[in-house]
Amino acid sequence: MLRLHYYPGNASLAPHILLEETGADYELMLVDRANNAHKSAEYLRLNPNGRIPTLVSGDLVIWESAAICLYILERFPGSGLSPEPGSEARGRFLNWMVYLTNTLQPEILVYNYTERHVSDDGAIPTVRGRAAERIANTWSIIENELSSRGPYLMGEEFSAADIYMMMLCRWCRSLENPPGNLPAVARVVETGEARPAVQRALAQEGFEVPFFIPAQAA
User: Fold this and answer.
1) pLDDT tens digits for 87-134?
2) N or C: which end of the chain has fewer CB within 10 A?
3) Bond into 183 cis (ω within 30)
4) Which residues pair with 30 in a beta bridge?
5) CB 100 within 8 A of CB 168
């Protein structure tokens, strides 16, 4: 059985959804981040980074959210959420997954946790503001791609890349102009939230729809 160490609404959400989508046999292991359980000696033995999520499968331990997503998709093929390995479509899929996790996600972390990236508190507004600009530019690129080649990141097919994008959309809700206000992004999120697996995962984490785009950002 797979064990996903998670905290509600964290980077564990995309892997959690994919476990539901693929019908995997799994167990959720709550890491109480509110009480710093992710920094406990027990958890650090699994994940020395002290971050969430962690997936455990026998002796295999995987730390990174995107890597966990890819592992789940390959271990449980047939979900229709990722193209066949080696195909051209797979190349496009990997491009989006890496773009989301390597280009967009780090900027969101700088924006949401700016104090971790500066030694002078007086620099926080400047650093946060520049991160917001880069985030907005990245979402503009995503919106243009969805508008011109969509309706989804992979074109006609909803994929795990869209699920990962939805998670990042949620994390950007405090932006002055959040991505949920972008029409093409909002359509993807609306489609994703209608999926039974997404709704099951959200319910298990104590959330209701709409979740990825808060009402005030719509």
Assistant:
1) 999 999 999 999 999 999 999 999 999 999 999 999 999 999 999 999
2) N
3) no
4) 6
5) yes
